[in-house]
Every structure is written in C-alpha cells, then in structure tokens.
Amino acid sequence: MFLSALHPFLQPCAAAVEETTLSPGWQMAVHSIPYVLLAVIVLGLLRCLRWYLLEKRRTRALGVRAAGLGLAFAERDQSGLAARLGPKFGVLSRGVAGKQEALNVMGGEHRGRRVQAFDYLYQRRVTPRGKSTALCYLSAALAVEPVNFPRTVIRPETAADRAAALAGFEDIDFESHEFSKRFYVQGADRRFAYALVDPRMMEYLLAHPGWSLELDGAEVLLWDGARWDPDRFAPALDFLTGFLDRVPEHLRRELGTGVAKQPEDGGRPGGNHEA
User: Chain-centre distance of CA 32, in angstroms?
Assistant: First the structure.
C-alpha cells in the first residue's frame, strides 16, 4: 500500500537513473534502490511502533500488578530517584553519568515495610569514546530499614570473581563451602558480614538463587541484572522482605537507628504527587 501510494513520487527518480548508460541488469538494480530504501524506512517505523505498543502494554500490566499489591504507581519518576540512588549503589551507576532514569515506579508498604520497585534505564557506551550508546534496562527493588547497615554486597559468584580470587582479590568466605562457592560477599565490615549471613540466612539465600543484594545505611537494594516481567515484581518484593525478616535481632539492636528512615519522597512513586 505504501509503495503504491508513493509510486508517482519515486518514478521520476527511477527514470533519471534509466537515462544513464547501464546494462539492463544494473538498470533494474538501480531502479529498485528508491523502493528498497522506502521499504527499509517503513519496516523501521513499524518496528518502532511495535516496540511502543509492547511498552505501553507492559506499563499497563505493571500498574495492575502494583494495584494488586496495594502499591501506588507512576509511569515516570519525578522525585530524582535515579540521581539519588545512582551514586550510592554500584549496579545503578552503570552507563553514562546523568543518563539514568527510573521508570514504572511502584511504592508503598509491603509486608510491613516501606518499599519501592522500578525499572532502571541507562545508556551504555558502545564505542570507546562514547560517541555511540545503547539503551539498557534492569529492574530493582528497594526497602528502608531502621538499621544503619555497613556497605555490603551479596550476589551470585561469577567466573570473573573466581579469576579475581586467584589473583589475590578474595571475597569473604564462610564455613559453608556450598555457600562460599555459590555467593560472592564483600563489605566494609567483615564482622558484620559474618553476623548477617548466619546459617539461617545462608539457608534462605541458597533456597532462592539468582538474586543480588546491596546494603548501604538504611537502604537495601535488590536486583538480578534483568528487566523483570510484571509477574516478577511480587516475588522480588517477597524475597527482599524475607531477607530483612532474617536479619539477626542482635544486629538490629546494635545497628538500629530507632526510627525507620523513609525515602525522600515518602515512598510514593513519582515524587510529591499521587500516581
């Protein structure tokens, strides 16, 4: 349909090409160039339209999931969540500085804790000098606790971690060989890490592989490196609150602040307005 409608406009270009002295085969190939270019443009537009429609459908599904969890929802964050959390958590500092954004933010109370969950958009440099970038996504969940956690990372161990250990850059090892083999733990306070990851916590983490956690002050961030399907947000929040349920009481007494620190926007997605 598109090609038929634009045929009168493309025909003069093809006619001009035919005036040159070319073999019939080359004339046919050159004659088709305008139509090929148009087809490429149309296919690109259709692909963009398909992506847009899929994103809108996903956003609507996330709003439904948020409502089902009793959480508020905002398609775009207006509270500066990315700017605040990016410098604090390593996984959110990825990409080009200042080119990160939180989207599809849900927030409120889940199983007695103030939480937020969101998509995180960032630009990754494709070329060394950053002249070309690619858009990347991941999802994350955040909880706030009345505990001043030392900075600690707990995540699945990778081949790069094992190679670094051979070079002398070891993480924190535990008595459980199975746990130490499967998880990378690093932190500013080794004593705290040993107290936090007690046998009860090890059992919980081993039973729920794939998740990564970063603790810093009163905030705990959860991610797995992927952008979650709408159905993945509820299990993520359940795991995060389950992890916090298992923080030993003696650590809470030792590091407790007495008052639960709330997110700067009160935990509502989108800042100082209701979704």
Answer: 43
Q: In the structure encoding, which two tokens stand for residue 105, read together?
A: 């933010």
**Segment holding 38, helix H or strand E:** helix 33-68
4-18, 52-66, 219-233: the lowest-pLDDT one: 4-18
**Would you say 142 and 85 are in contact if contact means Cβ atoms under 8 Å apart?**
yes
Let me know if residue 213 belongs to a domain.
yes
Judged by average pLDDT, the poorest of 18-32, 150-164, 166-180, 246-260 is: 18-32
Question: Are 141 and 218 in the same domain?
Answer: yes
Q: Are residues 239 and 113 in the same domain?
A: yes
In a domain, 67, yes or no: no
Structural domain count, the chain:
2
* pLDDT 10s digits, 17-28: 445 555 666 666
- Whole-prediction pTM: 0.76
131 DSSP assignment: S
Q: What is the mean pLDDT of the chain?
A: 82
- Alpha-carbon distance 178 to 182, whole Å? 6
Distance, in Å, from the CA atom of 139 to the CA atom of 142, rounded to the nearest integer, reads 10
Residues 161 and 32 in one domain: no
Of 240, 228, 161, nearest to 204 by C-alpha is: 240
Range of the domain at 158: 73-255
